[in-house]
């Protein structure tokens, strides 16, 4: 990672800033104008003080007389200049902040839109944590230089004005300025170059410490039950100490450069006093000029660091921006066709020679899968753990596209269907239930404009109406992360209602009732059969009762369809299937046989 | 509700208590403060130099260049000296604060693990994590910047004021008269700002959870075509966050210029009043000019004040949160040296009239008495909410009973040292949490000293070699964050192997194979039957095939053991078990 302020980073960083400036042209202009006002008025404030010294203070002290006119003029001058400066400061800070926040919001919108647009396969390739930080810390890093940017522009204006003012006032004293201020600027650059790699490392370690804590606390139960607290603490301590050392290293550089950067302008003021006294002796300048220049140095000392702040943020900004760009430029977005899947009758599903592999094709999970499901039929998809059932189910709703082969609904290849068309006809209830931080109604409707009666009807079909009506605010009860905690079976039933309320013509249940009590599950499945609107159903299950409801069984093993037919047929001829579905029975039988033998032995 | 309320303390008491926990902080504190004093006094060098130059060096008809040179040189030396002191102070400050905060972090981390499961679960994990990360960082930022600023700013105000009174008490009063009203209103601004920051934090939290939903719920959103609704929710959260941020900016953008204006008023007043006093001969011109420079020392403390006070508040809150952890007693505590070690060998357990209720909740276990004899295999069955899992948590001492007691080999469970207890009794929970790493690392988690051969042997004994061969990189297969590269069933296999390798004398399975396919489950059950021969085994089961294999079945119903005995015997009696079994058998075998 590039954490040093190199020329390349500078160039790219300025490019990033350019993007923001073009996007928020008017706000940026307002911020820069305010900041320029602030810059010019800072120089003017020193000049006003010099004027007041020459025209008000010195005459009063040396000649002992002062006119009310000059006194009022001096006072008004100081006040007026400061008022304008204050105006500049206010505008600069406000507009700089607004610009930064607007850019953050803009990037966040773009990134999250892209998350919604990109196919699920892309999501699978990117860890959740990374996607979250793309939308949070990367966005913050990318636009962090925008906060000090207008100030930096203002400082440039300030320096140019100061240089001109100095040269006009006294070229010799100006020379001191031309020595001191470039020295501060260069030192600042060196400072940021030294600091950046260290700060980046500390930031990285902070993330790692947090990761360890996250993982360790998430696995707290395992840590406790296996008595591994000491080892976990040692693991955390090691990283926490690395972070401590990295922070101390940062502190050493900061601790060195901050005092030096503060001492430089002070030494400049002292040099001005010395040289100024010599110029005063030769009659080249008056006392007012001396005060003006010395005061100017005091005023400039702090703002000049703003140039360094922008530079300091650039490397992080470039990295953050490039990460955002990677998301925004991600290709492989799903192409959609123009076909639709009209009608309300049960759909026909056909899978042709379908193959699929995870991770750039290295880990094939499905091979030449072909099957048809006629409208209104129920097919059970059965196979051992890891045989590819869930992946196959995902291709039916086009969550992923097959590597080769095709999925057709009513004869239309799903890839030909227009955006949003597939989810209008096909619904999948996945193995792992996900509830949004929303009400029951919101979780079932998911934005679909449906009446409460329809939601209740779907809940009834999912056998969820009973417990939902018993919730404190029924449909309006918050569920999900910050809401009422529901049991696994209850969550599954809400997820099922979510699919049913859409009146799918093809319904895919991926082990979707595994946590539901057997009796309730049976009621759900019978309900589906007798519902007013019948769907074609593909059900993935282990339970015999579920399988028994199917018209046909497809047996999947190691990613291939190895047999299909009725439950009885498969039971008779497919060994793998038999082993799987009769496992409990055989175990029971064996045990009984053993027990019988044992009894015989005892009685013998 | 979070159990981490901690002890009520004032802000100052919180800080004092926080510091007392980390003795490193006191190391060399006096020296650091002395250096800070010197560094602060350095701030008045310029005004003094200006005053001396004008009043003495340039006072005569011709400037006294030698005097100016001497003054400037002495002042330059003083500047270098103060810079050096500032450097030394910074280095010491960073070292001391970072060391003490690292200690605080580690103590907090360890204490979280020492807390009972119940206490741990009373707060979201993310919030628990931030107590040992972000909250500590907040303290460190404050100590290294804000806290230092407070000391320097107060010192700066003090030395500037002292010098002002030395030069002219009248003008010193004028300056204070100008700044005092500002000092009075600044805390009000700070309160607004801190309220605004709180809102930003809340809105940012909302926004992050909206983003997280869009990412974690990616499959659901696509499956049901609810992209538009999600986009709407995201936009609303992003906008609300932006609006909250802009609000803070408006407050900050008011405070800064306000200070500038007050400083300008002070300058103007100095000129006005200074000239009047000067005419009366009460002040020299150099002193008056020095005042103009001294004013600048008042400006930065005022401009920083709101931010610094805000940071101080955050730091106190951070301290409160980490102290909240440390103050929470580890209610299920290790008896430590006073405890007993269990001898090796099969374990017997006895529940004596055990009752349990969650804090503030209704009782979930009533008068449970049961004996588990050594080498026996027990199945625990019952409907959801009947008390099975509570029973398991009490048996493994994840929680302590509210009434009655549990003994292991005759010792009260509360008297058994954790080092012994956790090795002898191991539970496999339903959700087999895995750590990001390889398969081998995860299996060895229960016994770090295990060799590769031992790991392979364990997998072979459990009949999992076929499964292992199907994995892309054998034992070196990476399981991903929280084991998410594996399926739910596969994660359970790893968790089981992990507990098996730990070689406990009592193995407790809490629906540990619920996501595994029936054939594999039966294979595992058979393997465990062989492997647990000679050990005590307790299984909490959803599928009743496990109960068939057990020596004895405990049937739970509404917090009581209502039936117990071998499967065949229970089946012959009408009751809860017969009903459960009938329902299960019809669904599994129909």
Automatic annotation (TrEMBL), chain A:
Its main location: membrane. It comes from the Bacteria. Residues 30-316 form the ABC transmembrane type-1 domain. It is a multi-pass membrane protein. It is found in: Cell membrane. One of its GO terms (molecular function) is ATP binding. Pfam families: ABC_membrane (PF00664), ABC_tran (PF00005). Keywords: ATP-binding, Membrane, Nucleotide-binding, Transmembrane, Transmembrane helix. The chain crosses the membrane at residues 27-49, 69-90, 146-166, 172-191, 284-307. Residues 349-583 form the ABC transporter domain. This is ABC transporter ATP-binding protein. It comes from Streptosporangium longisporum.
UniProtKB/TrEMBL annotation, chain B:
It comes from the Bacteria. Keywords: ATP-binding, Membrane, Nucleotide-binding, Transmembrane, Transmembrane helix. This is ABC transporter ATP-binding protein. The chain crosses the membrane at residues 29-50, 70-89, 148-167, 173-189, 251-275, 287-305. The lineage of its organism: Bacteria, Bacillati, Actinomycetota, Actinomycetes, Streptosporangiales. It comes from Streptosporangium longisporum. Its main location: membrane. Residues 349-583 form the ABC transporter domain. Residues 30-314 form the ABC transmembrane type-1 domain.
């Amino acid at each position: 990672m590039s954490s040093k302020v190199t020329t390349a980073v500078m160039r790219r960083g300025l490019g990033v800033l350019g993007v923001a400036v073009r996007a928020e042209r008017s706000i940026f202009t307002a911020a820069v104008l305010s900041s320029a006002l602030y810059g010019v008025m800072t120089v003017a404030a020193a000049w006003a003080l010099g004027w007041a010294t020459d025209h008000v203070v010195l005459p009063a002290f040396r000649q002992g007389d002062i006119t009310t006119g000059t006194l009022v003029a001096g006072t008004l001058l100081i006040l007026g200049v400061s008022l304008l400066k204050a105006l500049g400061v206010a505008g600069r800070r406000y507009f700089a902040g607004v610009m930064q926040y607007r850019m953050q919001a803009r990037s966040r919108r773009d990134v999250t839109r892209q998350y919604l647009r990109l196919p699920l396969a892309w999501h699978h390739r990117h860890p959740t944590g990374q996607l979250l930080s793309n939308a949070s810390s990367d966005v913050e890093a990318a636009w962090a230089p925008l906060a000090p940017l207008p100030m930096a522009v203002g400082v440039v204006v300030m320096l140019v004005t100061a240089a001109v003012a100095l040269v006009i006032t006294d070229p010799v004293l100006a020379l001191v300025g031309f020595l001191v201020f470039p020295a501060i600027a260069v030192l600042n650059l060196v400072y940021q170059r030294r600091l950046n790699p260290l700060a980046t490392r500390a930031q990285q370690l902070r993330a790692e410490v947090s990761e360890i804590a996250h993982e360790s606390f998430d696995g707290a139960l395992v840590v406790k039950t296996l008595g591994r607290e000491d080892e976990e603490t040692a693991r955390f301590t090691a990283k926490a100490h690395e972070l401590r050392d990295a922070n101390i290293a940062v502190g050493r550089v900061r601790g060195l450069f901050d005092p030096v950067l503060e001492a430089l302008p002070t030494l400049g003021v002292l040099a001005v006093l010395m040289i100024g006294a010599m110029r005063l002796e030769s009659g080249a300048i008056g006392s007012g000029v001396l005060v003006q220049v010395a005061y100017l140095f005091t005023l400039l000392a702090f703002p000049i660091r703003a140039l360094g702040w922008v530079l300091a943020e650039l490397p992080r900004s470039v990295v953050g921006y490039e990460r955002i760009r990677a998301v925004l430029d991600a290709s492989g977005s799903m192409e959609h066709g123009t076909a639709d899947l009209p009608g309300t009758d049960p759909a026909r599903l056909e899978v042709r020679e379908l193959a699929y592999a995870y991770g750039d094709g290295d880990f094939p999970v499905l091979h030449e899968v072909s099957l048809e499901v006629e409208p209104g039929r129920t097919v059970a998809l059965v196979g051992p753990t890891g045989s590819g059932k869930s992946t196959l189910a995902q291709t039916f709703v086009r969550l992923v596209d097959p590597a080769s082969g095709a999925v057709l609904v009513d004869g239309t290849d799903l890839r030909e269907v227009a955006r949003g068309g597939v989810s209008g006809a096909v619904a999948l209830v996945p193995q792992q239930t996900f509830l949004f931080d929303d009400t029951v109604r919101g979780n079932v409707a998911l934005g679909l404009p449906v009446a409460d009666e329809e939601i209740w009807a779907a809940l009834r079909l999912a056998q969820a109406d009973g417990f939902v009506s018993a919730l404190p605010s029924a449909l309006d009860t918050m569920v999900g992360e910050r809401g009422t905690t529901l049991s696994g079976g209850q969550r599954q039933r809400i997820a099922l209602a979510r699919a049913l309320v859409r009146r799918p013509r093809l319904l895919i249940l991926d082990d979707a009732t595994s946590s539901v009590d057997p009796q309730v599950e049976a009621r759900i499945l019978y309900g589906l059969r007798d519902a007013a609107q019948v769907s074609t159903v593909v059900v993935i299950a282990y339970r015999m009762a579920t399988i028994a409801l199917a018209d046909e069984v497809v047996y999947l093993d190691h990613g291939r369809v190895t047999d299909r037919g009725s439950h009885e047929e498969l039971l008779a001829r497919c060994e793998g299937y038999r082993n799987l579905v009769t496992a409990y029975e055989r175990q029971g039988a064996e045990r009984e046989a053993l027990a019988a033998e044992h009894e015989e032995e005892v009685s013998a | 509700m979070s159990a981490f309320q901690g002890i009520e303390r004032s802000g100052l008491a919180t800080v004092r208590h926080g510091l007392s926990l980390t003795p490193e902080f006191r190391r060399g504190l006096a020296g650091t403060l002395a250096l800070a004093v010197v560094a602060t006094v350095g701030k008045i060098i310029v005004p003094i130099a200006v005053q001396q130059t004008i009043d003495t060096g340039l006072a005569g008809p011709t400037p006294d260049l030698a005097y100016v040179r001497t003054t400037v040189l002495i002042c330059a030396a003083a500047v270098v000296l103060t810079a050096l002191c500032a450097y030394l102070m910074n280095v010491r400050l960073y070292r001391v604060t970072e060391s003490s905060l690292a200690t605080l972090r580690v103590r907090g981390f360890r204490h979280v693990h020492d807390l009972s499961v119940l206490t741990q679960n009373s707060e979201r994990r993310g919030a628990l994590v931030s107590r040992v990360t972000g909250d500590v960082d907040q303290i460190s930022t404050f100590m290294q910047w804000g806290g230092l600023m407070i000391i320097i700013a107060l010192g700066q105000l003090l030395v500037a004021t002292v010098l002002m009174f030395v030069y002219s008490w009248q003008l010193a009063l004028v300056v204070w008269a100008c700044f005092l009203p500002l000092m009075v209103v600044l805390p009000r601004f700070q309160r607004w700002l801190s309220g605004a920051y709180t809102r930003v934090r809340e809105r940012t939290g909302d926004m992050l959870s909206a983003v997280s939903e869009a990412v974690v719920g990616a499959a659901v959103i696509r499956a049901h075509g609810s992209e538009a609704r999600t986009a709407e929710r995201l936009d609303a959260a992003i906008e609300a966050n932006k609006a909250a941020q802009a609000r803070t900016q408006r407050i900050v953008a008011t405070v800064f210029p306000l200070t500038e204006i007050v400083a300008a008023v002070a300058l103007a007043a100095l000129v006005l009043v200074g000239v009047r006093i000067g005419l009366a001969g009460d002040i020299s011109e150099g002193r008056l000019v020095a005042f103009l420079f001294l004013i600048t020392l008042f400006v930065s403390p005022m401009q920083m004040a709101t931010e610094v006070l805000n940071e101080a508040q955050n730091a106190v809150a951070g301290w409160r949160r980490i102290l909240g952890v440390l103050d929470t007693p580890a209610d299920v505590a290790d008896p430590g040296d006073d405890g007993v070690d269990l001898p090796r060998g099969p374990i017997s357990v006895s529940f004596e009239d055990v009752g349990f209720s969650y804090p503030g909740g209704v009782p979930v276990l009533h008068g449970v008495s049961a004996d588990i004899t050594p080498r026996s295999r027990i199945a625990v069955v019952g409907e959801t909410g009947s008390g099975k899992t509570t029973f398991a948590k009490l048996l493994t001492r994840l929680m302590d009973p509210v009434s009655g007691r549990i003994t292991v080999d005759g010792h009260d469970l509360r008297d058994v040292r954790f080092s012994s207890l956790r090795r002898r009794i191991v539970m496999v929970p339903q959700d087999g949490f895995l750590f990001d790493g390889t398969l081998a690392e995860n299996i060895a988690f229960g016994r770090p000293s295990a060799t590769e051969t031992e790991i392979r042997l364990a997998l072979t004994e459990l009949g999992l070699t076929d499964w292992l061969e199907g994995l892309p990189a054998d034992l070196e297969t990476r399981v991903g964050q929280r084991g998410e590269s594996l399926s739910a069933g596969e994660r359970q296999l790893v968790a089981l192997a992990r507990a098996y390798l730990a070689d406990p004398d009592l193995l407790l399975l809490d629906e540990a194979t619920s996501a595994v396919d029936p054939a594999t489950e039966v294979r595992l059950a058979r393997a465990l039957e062989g492997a647990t021969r000679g050990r005590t085994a307790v299984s909490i089961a959803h599928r009743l095939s496990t109960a068939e294999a057990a020596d004895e079945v405990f049937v739970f119903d509404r917090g009581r053991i209502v039936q117990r005995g071998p499967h065949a015997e229970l089946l012959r009696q009408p009751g809860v078990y017969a009903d459960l079994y009938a329902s299960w058998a019809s669904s599994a075998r129909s």
